[in-house]
Amino acid sequence: MIFRCYLSTMGDPPITWTWYCGKEVMKNVTFSSSRLYTYMNFTATWKHDRKLCYCRAKSSSSILFYDETSRYSYQMRVYHSPQSRPGIYPNSPTTVQIGENISIKCNLTTLGYPQIIWKWLCYNMAPQNGVDVGTESYLTFMASPGHDGMVCRCRGISSSSSHYSYDEVSEPLKITVLSTTEEEPLFITAAAFGTVTGLLVVIIIALISILVLQFIRGKKESICSYENFGKTLEGKPSGQQNPTYIKEESYEVLQVNRERF
C-alpha cells in the first residue's frame, strides 16, 4: 500500500511527519527532498483490515505551534481468511433438565474479508443458522430427551465470492439432558430418617413380642391338654376285667336267675 501527504510550505523551523493506521505508528515512511511530501509504503496484513490511515504534521517550534492531521483518512480493506479454526464455548450449562434452554457460541479473532458464513452442526438436528454478533455466532435451543448425549460443532465456510478458501470445523461440545428420575432426586433429612428408623424398631419389637406371647400361650395350652388327657385316662374304666370262674353245677343256678329276670 502507498499513501501520500503534502503541504504547500514546510514552515520555519520545518515540521516533522508521522503516519498512523489505527493506533499503530507506521515505520516504513519516506520523504521528498524538500520534505513537502511524505510517502508511506508498507505490506498490508489482516491486522490492517478496516483500519483508518492518516498522516500528521507537527512543528518543533515552541513559538509557532503547529500540530495537524490530514484532512482525510482512508480505511483499508484487506482480503484475508480467518487465522484459526473456530473455537466453541458453552454460553450456559451444557448439563440441563428437559425444557431448559441451551446456549453455545463460536468465535474467531477475525471473520476474514469477505466474511465467512457460520453453520451449526448438531447430531440428530438439521444444520442450523445461529445468531451472528461481531466475530461470534450463537445457537440457542430447548432441551428435549432426544438431545441427551448430542454433540454440536460450528463450521466456518468462505463464500463463493471470496478471494480465499476456508472451511474449518470447531471441536465437539457434548450436551447432557437429565432424565425425570435424575432431575428430582429424593432426599431424606436426618430427622425424617431418625423418625422412620424409630417406627421400624417399634414395629419390629411389637411383632417379636406378639410372636413370643403366642409361643408361650401355645405351650401352656399344650401342657393343659396333656394333663387333661392324662386325667381322662385315669378315670376311665379299664377294658380288661379279671375273669370269673364258676363251677359247672352253678350254671343251672345262673339260668334260673336269668329266667326270673
Helix/strand layout:
Blueprint: E1 2-6, E2 15-21, E3 24-25, E4 29-31, E5 37-41, E6 52-59, E7 67-69, E8 74-75, E9 87-90, E10 95-97, E11 101-107, E12 117-122, E13 131-133, E14 136-142, E15 151-157, E16 167-169, E17 173-174, E18 176-178, H1 180-183, H2 190-235, H3 250-260
Parallel strand pairs: 10-18
Antiparallel strand pairs: 1-5, 2-3, 2-6, 4-5, 6-7, 6-8, 9-11, 11-14, 12-15, 13-14, 15-16, 15-17
Would you identify the regions where 5 or more consecutive residues have pLDDT less than 50? 243-261
Structural classification: alpha+beta
Order of helices and strands: EEEEEEEEEEEEEEEEEEHHH
The CATH topology of one domain is given as Immunoglobulin-like
Q: Report Rg.
A: 55 Å
Number of discrete helical segments? 3
**Termini distance?**
164 Å
CATH superfamily of one domain: Immunoglobulins
User: Under the CATH scheme, which class of one domain?
Assistant: Mainly Beta
Which term fits the overall shape? elongated
The description of the largest β-sheet is: 5 strands, antiparallel
| Helical proportion, percent range | 10-25%
CATH architecture name of one domain = Sandwich
The share of residues in extended strands comes to: 25-35%
Number of strands: 18
> What is the arithmetic mean of pLDDT?
80
